[in-house]
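User: Reviewer 2 asked us to show a designed sequence for the structure in our supplementary figure. I'm pasting the structure tokens here. Could you produce the per-position amino acids so we can include them in the response letter?
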């Protein structure tokens, strides 16, 4: 007789109903229990293993819910949320919190940051953005400044490229405006982007931060801080500099400026931004070159200083002395491709200078080979009937607007 099984929960089950037998006569629960026998031990082992594997599998498998089941879920078990695009994790509605964090991380001890703006047209691989970052790497005492550079991205592509290249990035959302494409000079999109920038810089000042604003087509070759005026509130580079840093006839260029945070500069940026309504269809730089003569500037006591092109040059008026130049700007130039070519050539000229023996660095031997593709000569045939000389001194951004070229970017 087989050894009886130990009593288990299975044997204690009672079946109140009658179960059919294969012979056709009913089998009661009492008679049915008689057929229970001990299952073979190998079968028990295999059953336990199968149940264990099944349990482990379902425990390790993520629980995914559609919208309906997610709403029905009572929240007591973890829900696995699929990964999303990194920009989608940014709370664009909480701009102040995000901006506070990135400015605090990048600021110098005196709360000074370096700011630039970027959109997709300027952010692609092998673009002006790459040359911009490279200039800090090969400049004289400029690499450390990258720790204090904040890149303001106008669109998703620019933001993602920034995150791949640099630690301090800020996504600046503008509802209903797409800033990703190349914004041709004086186009509606271009003007909106420039004025959005002015309003944003006012916010930075109100948060108590000083800043250097630099266009991404400005190459940094030396630390510029020693060349700033200690008593200046608002200091700006020039397309044309006439030798006196107080002369408001100097042609200011908004692509590079150093601004201290105080009540005077905050009021000035508010005034600058509001002046767009009085000058519809005008570039922020053109408006600046108009309002700099306004009595309001003196009323608020703003100390405006114009930076010499000897230190802060550009294609309009290049710096001639390699031993003192801080920055060079691809201003007075038509199109991104032309800018890229001349900026790359500019970096090559700088490397050539840095490789010279010390005795030759202070000589007159080094020279810029730019402008090359950025030469304004091809535009002269567009200027029939234009009064005045066709040269960089006359071709200010506002006057160049009459060319009506769809691919123009003079900054």
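Assistant: Here is a per-position design you can include in the supplement:
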């Amino acid at each position: 007789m087989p050894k009886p099984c130990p009593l288990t929960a299975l044997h204690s089950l009672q079946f109140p109903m009658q179960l059919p037998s294969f012979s056709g006569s009913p089998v009661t629960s009492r008679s049915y229990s008689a057929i229970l026998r001990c299952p073979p031990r190998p079968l028990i082992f295999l059953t336990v293993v199968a149940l264990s594997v099944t349990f482990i599998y379902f425990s390790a498998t993520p629980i995914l819910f559609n919208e309906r089941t997610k709403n029905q879920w009572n929240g007591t078990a973890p829900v696995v949320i699929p990964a999303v695009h990194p920009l989608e994790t940014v709370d664009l509605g909480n701009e102040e919190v995000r901006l506070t964090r990135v400015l605090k991380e990048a600021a110098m001890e005196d709360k000074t940051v370096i700011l630039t703006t970027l959109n997709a047209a300027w952010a692609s691989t092998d673009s002006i953005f790459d040359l911009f970052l490279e200039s800090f790497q090969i400049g004289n005492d400029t690499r450390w400044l990258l720790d204090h550079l904040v890149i303001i991205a106008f669109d998703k592509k620019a933001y993602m490229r920034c995150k791949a290249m640099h630690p301090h990035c800020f996504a600046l959302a503008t509802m209903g405006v797409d800033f990703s494409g190349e914004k041709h000079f004086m186009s509606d999109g271009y003007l909106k982007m420039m004025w959005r920038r002015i309003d944003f810089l006012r916010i930075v000042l109100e948060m108590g931060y000083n800043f250097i604003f630099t266009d991404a087509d400005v190459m940094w070759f030396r630390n510029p801080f020693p060349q700033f005026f200690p008593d200046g509130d608002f200091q700006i580079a020039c397309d044309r500099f006439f030798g006196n840093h107080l002369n408001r006839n100097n042609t200011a260029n908004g692509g590079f400026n150093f601004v201290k945070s105080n009540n005077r500069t905050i009021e000035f940026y508010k005034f600058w931004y509001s002046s767009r309504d009085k000058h519809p269809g005008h570039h922020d730089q053109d408006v600046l070159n108009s309002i700099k003569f306004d009595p309001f500037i003196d009323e608020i006591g703003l100390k405006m200083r114009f930076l010499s092109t000897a230190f802060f040059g550009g294609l309009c008026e290049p710096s001639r002395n390699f031993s003192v130049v801080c920055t060079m700007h691809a201003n007075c130039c038509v199109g991104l491709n032309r800018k890229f070519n001349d900026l790359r050539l500019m970096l090559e000229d700088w490397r050539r200078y840095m490789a010279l023996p010390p005795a030759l660095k202070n000589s007159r031997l080094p020279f810029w080979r730019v402008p090359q593709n950025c030469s304004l000569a091809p535009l002269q045939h567009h200027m029939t009937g234009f009064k005045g000389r066709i040269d960089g001194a006359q071709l200010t951004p506002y006057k160049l607007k009459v060319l009506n070229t769809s691919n123009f970017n003079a900054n």
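For the response letter, you might also mention the following. The first helix runs from residue 29 to 33. Residues 92-379+389-403 form a domain with the Spore Coat Polysaccharide Biosynthesis Protein SpsA; Chain A fold (CATH 3.90.550.10).
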